[in-house]
Fold this sequence. Notes:
- This protein is of the alpha+beta class.
- Helices cover 28% and strands 38% of the residues.
- The two termini are 25 Å apart.
- It contains five helices and nine strands.
- The chain is globular, with a radius of gyration of 16 Å.
Amino acid sequence: xxxxxxxxxxIMENQRFFLRPMTGEDTDRIIRxxxxxxxxxxxxxxxxxxxxxxxNWIRTxxxxxxxxQFILCMDREPxxxxxxxxIDRRHSRAEYGIFIGERNAWGQxxxxxxxxxxxxxxxxxxxxxxxxLRVLAENAGAIKxxxxxxxxxxxxxxxxxxxxGQYKDVIYMAVLNKARK
Length: 181
């Protein structure tokens, strides 16, 4: 269900989860989440996350419309964030990303629900044709969740990134908006 949230845009919700627009007030929470080892190790970009970096993200990506970001809440509490980045209007595509920064939200269906909602948002609200993501091949839980949400594997890239002293494989997954063919 979509509805307005405090005059700041839409909110997507069901009985247990909801997405609300990210605000500047979420900066400290996002920095804390992104710098936790159990979150950071699942990102391709693993450098420490800073206030300056997040404010730059807001200025260069969010404020310019090249990205949209939401806070994922479970049982009324913020537990993570989802976003569309590198929104490309010419080719009608974007990259999906998520991080769940509260361990109590893991395995609760929050990630799969959020991915489904963001697919719907990307296709219905943003009118995109394709939504893709990159995931480390070793992240089996995320791959399973993305599959449940509708993403399909498109490519397996061996030794794609060098992290933690070793090369790691990356899987590209995507979902197409069948209504926009």
